[in-house]
């Protein structure tokens, strides 16, 4: 269909206009530059004006057969700390929690952790092999795996190194970089217990080695009790196939346990009577304590929370009423309550939890706060159904020292200055 | 009895005598999906090695052989003597005491078998699974020798590696001692307001990449 000149120009931006529309848009922009110039003046869109986007047709259905975010939110992306690792193939990126409105992390923003880069796996050729101390070893195709009874569950995944750069002192002035190694999604797949029933565990089956098809063949040992409890072998993530960054076509979900054991591109499960002490559970993901001993197999994510608004990326705009917002989570079950302090921990007030409050999932909390424009120290403190109370960094340091890297679940303190700017600080 | 009927009876019986979650349990082969792997298929993929040597293949390698391979394939990242280049891991030396502990293969890794397993599964970083078993044994011998854990004439094989005692092995505890904090959810007068003091801030540290605009490539000064 041919439309009059000007009708093709989409005020939402060139990246949302495809094919012929894009050509026409560019031509229009180059020719008159009227649209862009007018859009630059936000006041022209405010009432009583009828803004440009109300005066023309937008692109039709399937203009973008797979949708993408508005280009106005182009800054909301995963980001990395370039000085942290030697390269990007064995590295991590962080979720922009400051822009995550609910408990579900968008698939394109779910944090990444690779040990040998993002594997590109052909689902037709992918296989899951289960062998070892089992009655009937199995090789399964993706089609086979999808025939088993399926479940969908919402769970967070947190890298235990989340906050690992903050053991010695406040270092990174950013929510994304201090806490962005946690994300949450709805996962769909088959319970690992179903697959283990199908192969039949032998009497001495005590441990499972789970291994990926990536270049690093990332592998971990898991106790069989956890495997039979709530571990999932998943192919679905938030209403679509697992993303390649999350292990397409198949990954393990180990609810509430450290991210590293949630093996991506899952290709093999070996059942044995002892752990394997793989590189990722000896050299890494163990914690050097201040007295010189090391802790291993510290799989559980203990209760943790953080305020996502305000935060360094989202400062305050003058005194007045605000809703403090944040997330809490625990690998041991449900969050029972979250308390918020605005005075550095002298006084606490109970925050409101938002439904759904699910076990081993991000839980959203809010708390109304009238800011008087004076300096403030904001903190949140999570308590889970076991009664465990999120500790301060000072207490963690007193017990463990500063060289543990992993399992920093301490209370985060945000310093609010009179100009509304927010800084990552730690209290003595 | 048909497998369908058998399965139904098992499920029915289970429903009456066991908790709900266990009622979903089915006998091995109930679904019948997939197929049995051949021994060759299992051998090809079953690469994991345990501290007792289970999983180690036949073959062997010496310290000197390892030195040559290491210089050729590993030194660019890990340094000729395992000292590490840039941010790539240091493999040799290092102390766990002092203000900045240096965990390396020698100072930290509890099992020598893990070194064989990891080289075999993930190294060399840009070309994993390109080394023969003999080459992996040789590299393992060389790296252990760099750390003064084995003598110059050490030969690594499936019998010798499980017997190597790594210095930090007994310092590991494998039972999670947490919870190791015991906070209370105090609500009022929890601490003396005069004692609320900031002891560190990220402000002005210049370590934080930007969180708007394009990805940052910053390096700390």
Could you walk me through the main structural features you see in this protein, from its secondary elements to its overall organization?
- The complex is a heterodimer of chains A (428) and B (221).
- Chain A is of the alpha+beta class and 428 residues long.
- Chain A is built from 7 helices and 23 strands.
- Chain A has 2 domains: 103-295, Oxidoreductase, molybdopterin-binding domain (Sulfite Oxidase, Chain A, domain 2, Alpha-Beta Complex); 304-423, Immunoglobulin-like, CATH 2.60.40.
- In chain A, strand 7 and strand 8 (219-223) form a beta hairpin.
- Chain B has 221 residues and is mostly helical.
- Chain B has 2 domains: 3-38, no CATH class; 48-169, Cytochrome Bc1 Complex, Chain D, domain 2 (Orthogonal Bundle), CATH 1.10.760.10.
- Chain B has 6 helices and 4 strands, in the order ααβααααβββ.
- In chain B, helix 5 packs across helix 6.
- The chains are: A alpha+beta (428), B mainly alpha (221).
- At the A-B interface, strand 4, helix 3, helix 5, strand 12 and strand 14 of A face helix 2, helix 5, strand 3 and strand 4 of B.
Principal-axes shape call of chain B: extended
For the biggest sheet of chain B, the summary is: 2 strands, antiparallel
- Superfamily at the CATH H level of the largest domain in chain B? Cytochrome c-like domain
Radius of gyration of chain A, CA atoms, in whole angstroms: 24 Å
Gap between N and C termini of chain B: 75 Å
**Largest interface (C-beta under 8 Å):** A-B, 107 and 93 residues
What proportion of the residues of chain A is helical, as a percent range?
A: 10-25%
Oligomerization state? heterodimer
Strand ordering within the main sheet of chain B: 1-2
Helical segment tally of chain A?
7
Derived from helix and strand composition plus strand pairing, the structural class of chain A reads alpha+beta
Core attributes:
heterodimer; A: 428 residues; alpha+beta; Sulfite Oxidase, Chain A, domain 2; Immunoglobulin-like; 2 domains; five-stranded mixed beta sheet; globular; disordered N terminus; B: 221 residues; mainly alpha; Cytochrome Bc1 Complex, Chain D, domain 2; two-stranded antiparallel ribbon
């Amino acid at each position: 269909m041919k439309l009059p000149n000007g009708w093709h120009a989409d005020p939402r931006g060139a990246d949302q206009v495809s094919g012929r529309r894009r050509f026409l848009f560019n031509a229009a922009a180059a020719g008159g530059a009227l649209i862009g110039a007018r859009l630059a003046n936000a006041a022209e869109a405010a009432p009583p004006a009828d803004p440009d986007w109300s005066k023309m047709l937008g692109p039709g259905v399937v203009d973008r057969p797979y949708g993408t975010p508005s280009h106005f939110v182009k800054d909301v992306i995963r980001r990395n700390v370039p000085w942290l690792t030697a390269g990007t193939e064995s590295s991590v990126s962080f979720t922009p929690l400051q822009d995550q409105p609910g408990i579900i992390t968008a698939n394109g923003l779910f944090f990444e952790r690779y040990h040998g880069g993002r594997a590109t796996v052909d689902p037709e050729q992918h296989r899951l092999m289960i062998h070892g101390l089992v009655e009937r070893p199995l090789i399964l195709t993706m089609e086979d795996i999808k025939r088993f009874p399926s479940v969908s569950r919402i769970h967070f995944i947190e890298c235990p190194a989340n906050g690992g750069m903050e053991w010695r002192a406040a270092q990174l002035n950013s929510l994304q970089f201090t806490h962005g190694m946690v994300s949450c999604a709805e996962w769909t797949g088959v319970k690992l217990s179903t697959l283990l029933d199908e192969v039949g565990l032998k009497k001495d089956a005590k441990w499972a080695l789970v291994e990926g098809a990536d270049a690093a063949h990332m592998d971990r040992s898991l106790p069989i009790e956890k495997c039979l409890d709530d571990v999932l072998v998943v192919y679905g993530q938030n209403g679509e196939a697992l993303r390649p960054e999350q292990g397409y076509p198949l990954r393990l979900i180990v609810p509430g346990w450290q991210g590293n054991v949630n093996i991506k591109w899952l290709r093999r499960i070996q059942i044995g009577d002892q752990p394997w002490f793989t590189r990722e559970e000896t050299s890494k993901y163990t914690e050097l304590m201040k007295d010189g001993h090391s802790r291993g197999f510290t799989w559980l994510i203990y209760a943790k929370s953080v305020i996502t608004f305000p935060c360094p990326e989202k400062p305050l705009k003058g005194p007045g009423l605000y809703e403090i917002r944040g997330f809490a989570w625990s690998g041991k079950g449900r969050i029972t309550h979250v308390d918020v302090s605005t005075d550095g921990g002298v006084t606490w007030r109970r925050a409101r939890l938002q439904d759904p409050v699910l076990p081993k999932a991000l839980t959203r909390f809010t708390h109304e706060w009238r800011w008087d424009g004076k300096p403030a120290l904001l903190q949140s403190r999570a308590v889970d159904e076991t009664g465990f109370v999120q500790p301060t960094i000072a207490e963690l340091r007193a017990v463990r020292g500063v060289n543990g890297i992993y399992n920093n679940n301490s209370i985060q303190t945000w310093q609010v200055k009179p100009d509304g700017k927010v800084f990552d600080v730690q209290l003595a | 009895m048909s497998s369908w009927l058998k399965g139904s009876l098992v499920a029915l019986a289970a429903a009456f005598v066991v908790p709900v979650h266990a009622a979903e349990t089915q006998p091995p082969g109930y679904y019948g999906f997939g197929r049995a792997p051949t021994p060759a298929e299992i051998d090809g993929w079953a690469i994991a090695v345990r501290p007792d040597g289970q999983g180690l293949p036949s073959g062997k390698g010496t310290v000197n052989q390892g030195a040559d391979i290491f210089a050729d394939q590993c030194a660019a990242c890990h340094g000729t003597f395992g000292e590490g280049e840039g941010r790539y891991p240091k493999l040799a030396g290092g102390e766990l005491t002092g203000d900045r502990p240096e965990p390396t293969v020698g100072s930290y890794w509890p099992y020598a078998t893990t070194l064989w397993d990891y080289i075999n599964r993930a190294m060399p970083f840009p070309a994993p699974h390109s080394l023969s078993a003999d080459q992996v044994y040789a590299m393992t011998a060389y790296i252990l020798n760099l750390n003064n854990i084995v003598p110059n004439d050490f030969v690594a094989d499936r019998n010798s590696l499980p017997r190597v005692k790594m210095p930090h092995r007994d310092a590991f505890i494998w039972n999670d001692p947490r919870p190791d904090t015991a906070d209370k959810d105090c609500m009022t007068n929890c601490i003396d307001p005069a004692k609320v003091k900031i002891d560190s801030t990220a402000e002005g540290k210049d370590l934080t990449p930007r969180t708007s605009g394009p990805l940052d490539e910053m390096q700390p000064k």
